Amino acid sequence: MTKVNSPLSKYLLVLGASILLCASMAWSADDDKDRSDIDKRLDASTKVLDEIMATPDKAIPDKVMSDAKCVAVIPSMVKIAVGFGGSHGKGVATCRTASGMWSAPAPITMTGGSWGLQLGGQAVDVVMIVTNDNGMQHLISSHFKLGADASAAAGPVGRDAAADTDWKMRAEVLTYSRARGIFAGIDLNGAAVTQDKDETRILYGTFVPFGEILSGKVQPAGASAPFLTAVKRYSVQAREHSELKPSAGKTITASR
Fold first, then answer.
1. For residues 116 and 190, what is the distance between their CA atoms, to the nearest angstrom?
2. Residue 93: pLDDT above 90?
3. Does residue 196 surpass a pLDDT of 70?
4. Mean pLDDT across the stretch 79-84?
5. Domain residue spans in the chain?
6. In contact, 103 and 97? CB cutoff 8 Å
7. How far is the C-alpha of 58 from the C-alpha of 155, rounded, in Å?
8. Which helix (H) or strand (E) holds 194?
9. Which residues contact 237 (CB under 8 A, 6 or more apart)?
10. Phi, psi of 11 (to 5 degrees)
11. Comparing 177 with 253, which gets the higher pLDDT?
12. 121 vs 74, which has greater pLDDT?
């Protein structure tokens, strides 16, 4: 074995080891930052749902939430301008599995043209409710365009809204936005929804196809718990509330 005797050789060895150590620390810091970003996105999505559903007369209707096949939230979607108007945002989606449980969240991105964010550069929270199996299959495909691949419409607002409408027949995806404290249905036709592959790798440690995540084949990451708890709570709460309401044209008579 050759011994390293010269001061220069020893210096180069120390320098090389220091460079490798610094590089590994930088990579670790980048990994921690990326992980922090997806965790913050999950937390922000939970907060959006909590704040929207906290005001019943301005919330997503019970019938919509109780029958939802998938729920997607894109917090703080922003307008962009690169030669033309547009918008871009990142969020997460979850779908009901065959067992009735909600799947692990799948990171998504949404990019669209100028479809109504007429609020300057302000960020807008976006919520999408997939209403039927066809819409869910479009989402699971990991890339679809609202209005082209899947029919979409601005969703009704208010706990008791949509009880006597044909919203489920008209749209596979109901879309909502919130800005400046105002929550309302919004037309997102033309917006493209895709799987965020980079965020998927960060969240699950490796790339996992959309279909496997949203069909329930993947265990949720620890940071997903608050978001999934919120989706479950509001879908169950909506179902219980709608079951307590009297049918149209009927009244409930108190027993004596």
1. 11
2. yes
3. yes
4. 53
5. 52-237
6. yes
7. 12
8. strand 192-195
9. 65
10. -65, -45
11. 177
12. 74
In the chain, what's the furthest Cα-to-Cα distance? 102
The Cα 205–Cα 216 span in angstroms is 17
**Distance in angstroms (rounded) separating the CA atoms of residues 183 and 54:** 12
On the CB side of 256, CA atoms within 13 Å amount to 0
Helical pair 197-204 and 7-53, crossing angle rounded to 10 deg: 100
Mean of pLDDT values over 28-37:
57
DSSP 55-118: SGGGS--HHHHHH-SEEEEEEEEEEEESSSEEEEEEEEEEEB-TTSPBPPPEEEEEEESSSS--
The CA R_g of the chain, rounded to the nearest whole Å, is: 23
The single residue listed with the structure tokens 């219980």 is 240
Residues 50, 56, 61, 63, CA torsion sign: positive
Reported as a pLDDT band with limits 50, 70 and 90, residue 187 is confident
Nearest Cα to Cα of residue 184 among 40, 55, 42? 55
The confidence score (pLDDT) of residue 165 equals: 56
188 by Cβ neighbours in 10 Å (0-12 / 13-18 / 19+) ranks as buried
DSSP 195-221: E-HHHHHHHHSS---HHHHHTT-SPPP
CA separation, residue 138 to residues 69, 147, 152 (Å) = 12, 12, 12
117, amino acid identity = L
Task: State which amino acid sits at residue 138.
Answer: H
Q: Which tokens is 113 given?
A: 């043209």
Helix H or strand E encompassing 177: strand 173-179
